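Entry 14: structure prediction run for Putative tricarboxylic transport membrane protein. Input pasted below.
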Amino acid sequence: MDLSNLLDGFATALTPSHLLFAAIGVLLGTAIGVLPGIGPAMAVALLLPVTYGLDPTGAFIMFAGIYFGGMFGGSTTSILLNTPGESAAVVVAIEGNKMAKAGRGAQALAAAAIGHFIGGLIGITLLILLAPVIASYAVNIGAPDYFAFMVLAFVATSTVLGSSRLRGFASLLIGLTIGLVGLDQLTGQARLTFGSLHLADGIDVVIVAVGLFAVGESLWVAAHLRQTMEKPIPVGRPWLGRDDVRRAWKPWLRGPFIGFPFGAIPAGGADMTTFLSYVTEKKLSKRKDQWGKGAIEGVAGPEATSTATAAGTMVTMLTLGLPTTAVAAVMLAAFQQYGIQPGPLLFERESGLVWALIASLPIGLLFLLVINLPMAPVWAKLLRIPRPYLYAGILLFASVGAYAVGGEVLDLIILFAIGVLGFAMRRYGLPVLPAIIGVILGPAAELQMRRALQISDGNLTGLINSPIAVTIYVIIAVLLAWPLVRKVLPGGRREDKQDKIDA
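Run finished. Output tokens:
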């Protein structure tokens, strides 16, 4: 770490104009992240033309604020409305929405805001200290390792969520099938396009996520609205009690060490790491009976993880020019717009810009905490909006977000078709998250698998020719075999009966 360059970076980031850019970025990111279907990647992309006249340092400070603000905004609607504003906020809905329905929406939002701050602060510290080490490590990871990481994500999401493993894998299969739509990445062969040129580019992840969550949830609520009487939901205290802090502080600290390393490699970004954090906290929790009913650990851990993952993505983007998330890819395009090429020489040629960008990250996190933590009860009052108006608004914003992706009417048709699919999945008890994971990681997993097989001349041993891959497959085998092993262990059958009663 170059301390003098870092201090110069803080001197640049703390100028009034750059502080204003950071504040604007955080506000814009939070506001846009709250809207279903319009995530931080789209926000940065839409602002690219607007920032063309700005100096590069100010533009990238704003982009970084949008990134972190968008991630927090996405968790807001996950918690309050069970409608993630962006894909990294999917996992938070599992426990956060249960907390909100129990009148603890303000506590869930507070846990999320503090988690973002702590996770981001630890992640940024690791970015400053360990960027060269993480970057060199990521270079040595090959296609078999990438594929193994993604298979781990598939198995973890499918086996932990839902009422049965069969339903989890069925949901995953749906997502993988949707991910196949478009042209083959290696041969250019059209797959599942039904002769439509519009589908040749595949179905955008934003449309799938918004369709399954926002539209599917709205249709589900509409179908049951007449059967249930709406009762006002209490907002709750706008602060965390001692018991909440006692349960949340360990997940806050554990999350960054899960998120940062995975953020630095192309293995799914925050979409995968948030779920790994959720699984970890669930395994370590001493209050198993509260999971699925509003466990605060299931909010604190994934939220700290997601922001640390965002810091990790900066490592490979700045030092290797390798984007590991959608936002990183858009920011890479922004660098190229200014004629700057991220890579090993970036820290030498654009030292001032890079260190100012890094120094602006903790400043943006502080803005995020100061602005959003006091607003937790305000956001929580969204629950008091009558459901017909609320979900009508969600459908409107979801439609606008889907149409903005490509500007095609067909996108809206696909959106509502996937929304009907999401409604059917809820009706028959299929968890939605494995489908989303399948859509996001499916194409990348296929590409890495085929690359590994090409290198090994079609030999399947090419998928397990590294210690990292072998270790991950051992973990996968344990996950798959654990239910059978648990039945053999003393007391295992008794636990299974209790799980069925709880379900």
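Notes: The chain has two domains: 3-460, 466-503. Will compare against the previous run tomorrow.
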